[in-house]
């Protein structure tokens, strides 16, 4: 099992990331991919990847940090330097986010789009796939990707923590993207602002396009919801999806691992 998206580079793991990583490997997680959301956390992801075997990094500026207050004027140059480091497998998490967080309003959409497009072009230049963040912005993201089709690799990467409509899903699949699911697929009902349950989406996706992630420290799967998430729980999400797809956990593990290796050229 591979956790294709987590944040052991965040403060919440500062004191015990070493134990968390060892616990995950012991539980059967073979590979962990840490993701940056701005320059400092991307730098930290790169450092962690240098320290551990089977641990990789994804670097990028999250749409929520697209604001000029958070990104220095030379952020793109800084990001390019980081993206060229060993064991960086993609540019992410990048995309669009129209959800208003308690701590943060919605960053200007034009600014988000600009930062997203600059990073699509950087990924193209460095021949890296994309790891896309979408919250309530699926149609705009699809349009931007369609407008940048010639910049996409084959395969182009993945949508992280997928949510949205069947139409957005269909477009993402048609462009060749993989689809990532997290622990929130184990929650009952439809999350706020969405119209389709995640398990209904997962049923429509062929097994060769699904990848598993935790988004640790967030989105902890049942029965641990409410506590800090960590990569070892990728296995719980994998088991849940295997049940939805009516296949064995071994089959899901084998195929999602293969998908990740193909997509990130591991
Ligand atoms: Ni994340």
What do these coordinates show?
- There is one protein chain.
- By secondary structure, the chain is an alpha/beta fold.
- The chain has one domain (2-264): Alpha-Beta Barrel (TIM Barrel), CATH 3.20.20.
- The protein is built from nine helices and eight strands.
- It has helices at residues 17-27, 39-51, 75-83, 109-126, 138-147, 166-174, 198-203, 234-245, 249-264; strands at residues 2-6, 31-35, 55-59, 88-97, 130-135, 157-160, 178-181, 210-212.
- An eight-stranded parallel beta sheet has the order 1-2-3-4-5-6-7-8.
- Strand 4 (88-97), helix 4 (109-126) and strand 5 form a beta-alpha-beta unit.
- Helix 2 packs parallel to helix 3 (75-83).
- The longest helix has 18 residues, at 109-126.
- The two termini are 14 Å apart.
- 48% of the residues are buried.
- Nickel (II) ion is lined by residues 5, 7, 35, 93, 215.
> Approximately how much helix is present in the residues?
25-40%
> Runs with pLDDT <50, length 5+?
none
Rounded Rg: 17 Å
Structural class comes to alpha/beta
- Spatial gap, N to C terminus: 14 Å
Kindly report the average pLDDT value.
96
H/E series: EHEHEHEHEHEHEHEHH
Q: Would you state the CATH class?
A: Alpha Beta
- Architecture (CATH level 2) name: Alpha-Beta Barrel
What is the fold-level CATH name, i.e. the topology? TIM Barrel
The proportion of strand residues reads 15-25%
Bound molecules: nickel (II) ion
User: Biggest sheet, strands in spatial order?
Assistant: 1-2-3-4-5-6-7-8
């Amino acid at each position: 099992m591979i956790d294709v998206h987590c944040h052991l580079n965040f403060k919440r793991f500062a004191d015990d990331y070493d134990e968390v990583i060892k616990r995950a490997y012991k539980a059967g997680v073979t590979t962990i991919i840490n993701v940056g959301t701005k320059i400092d956390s991307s730098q930290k992801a790169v450092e962690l990847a240098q320290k551990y075997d089977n641990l990789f990094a994804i670097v990028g500026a999250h749409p929520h940090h697209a604001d000029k207050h958070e990104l220095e004027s030379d952020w793109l140059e800084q990001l390019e330097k980081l993206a060229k480091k060993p064991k960086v497998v993609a540019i992410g998490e990048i995309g669009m986010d129209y959800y208003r967080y308690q701590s943060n309003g919605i960053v200007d959409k034009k600014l988000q789009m600009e930062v997203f497009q600059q990073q699509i072009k950087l990924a193209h230049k460095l021949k890296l796939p994309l790891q896309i963040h979408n919250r309530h912005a699926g149609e705009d993201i699809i349009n931007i990707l369609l407008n940048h089709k010639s910049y996409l690799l084959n395969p182009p990467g993945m949508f992280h923590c997928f949510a949205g409509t069947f139409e957005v899903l269909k477009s993402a699949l048609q462009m060749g993207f993989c689809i990532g699911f997290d622990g929130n697929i184990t929650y009952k009902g439809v999350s706020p602002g969405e119209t389709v349950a995640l398990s209904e989406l997962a049923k429509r996706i062929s097994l060769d396009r699904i990848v598993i992630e935790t988004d640790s420290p967030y989105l902890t799967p049942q029965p641990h919801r409410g506590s800090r998430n960590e990569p070892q729980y990728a296995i719980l999400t994998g088991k849940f999806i295997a049940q939805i797809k009516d296949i064995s956990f071994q089959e899901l593990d084998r195929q999602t691992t293969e998908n990740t290796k193909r997509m990130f050229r591991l």
